[in-house]
Amino acid sequence: MHIYIMTDLESVAGVRDFPDWCVPDGRCYEQATRLLTLEVNAAIEGFAAAGATEFMVADGHGRGAIEIELLDRRADMRRGWPQGWPLGLDDGGDYDYLAFVGQHAKAGTEFAHLAHTQGLNYIDLSVNGVSIGEFGQLAMCASELGLRTIFGAGGLAFTVEAQALVAGIETVAVKRGLRPGSGDEMTTAQYEHRNAAAVHVQPERAREMIRDGAQRALRRAQTEDFGIIPLQAPFERVARFRPAKDGEPTTISRESHPTSVIGMMNLPFDRQPEA
């Protein structure tokens, strides 16, 4: 069995804020990337215990956050998607399942730690009226391909989001945000510092939880039918964006595709001032 593991950095246990932990010139960035890679290794151990033999680890954060020398030797690492969405899921890897490690909640999520969607300038993104984030975008693409999404580890708010979108998915929460409200009224610069308060699971314990959760997910996937999001064409994407600074308007973009979520996700945004 071949598992595609999409990774991100913000919702790894111990990763605390954007400026110090999530950008390459941050003082704690190397520690953050090590923590992420160890969480990925824990997921690989769990999947392997349930029978998986091949692993593609997608380095999905910013300018990169997987420490390849620390990565489980059974895994390959992918960085870069020249064809855009679905981020390599259709590149001939013959993947059996999709999983996520380090995944954060979508922009505007209440009680979420470091929540955002792609950039910090998003207020919301929806497909056919369903608000989604980075997890939802790739999980929808996978569903169009018939690839089941079976596991996700990250913040508690993310796990709630994932369970609402993918019925039956196995999730593990390794931190929980503390701030109420959405922050939709904020500029991009203001929102960057909004959601830094959280309670973290101790990293060794978090990795044990991820290992156990990944094993459960794959064992369940072999006997239970879950992991596909029902999709209904045509598809409309609506995105709302924050102003860069006070006094500027929010903007909105609407795009559609008659048959394909993947095709729609690859359309450029046509941003206009929001009425």
Describe it.
- With 275 residues, the chain is α/β, with parallel strands linked by helices.
- The chain is built from seven helices and twelve strands.
- α4 links the parallel β7 and β8.
- α2 (29-49) packs parallel to α6.
- The termini are far apart.
Summary keywords:
single chain; about 280 residues; alpha/beta; seven-stranded mixed beta sheet; five-stranded antiparallel beta sheet; 7 helices; 12 strands
Can you describe this structure in just a few lines?
The chain is an alpha/beta fold and 275 residues long. It is 27% helix and 24% strand.
Give the SSE map.
Elements: E1 2-7, H1 18-21, H2 29-49, E2 54-59, E3 75-78, E4 97-103, E5 122-127, E6 130-131, H3 134-144, E7 148-155, H4 156-165, E8 170-177, H5 188-192, E9 198-200, H6 203-221, E10 235-241, E11 251-257, H7 261-265, E12 272-273
Parallel strand pairs: 1-2, 1-4, 2-3, 4-7, 7-8
Antiparallel strand pairs: 5-6, 5-10, 8-9, 10-11, 11-12
Helix pairs in contact: 2-6
User: In sequence order, what are the helices and strands, one letter per element?
Assistant: EHHEEEEEHEHEHEHEEHE
Give the strand tally. Answer: 12
Amino- and carboxy-terminal Cα gap: 50 Å
Q: Indicate the radius of gyration in whole angstroms.
A: 18 Å
Main sheet: which strands, in order across?
3-2-1-4-7-8-9
The secondary structure category is alpha/beta
**Arithmetic mean of pLDDT:** 97
Low-pLDDT parts are none
Shape, please?
globular
- SS element count, helices: 7
Main beta sheet strand tally, sense and closure: 7 strands, mixed
Beta-strand fraction estimate: 15-25%
Residue share in helix: 25-40%
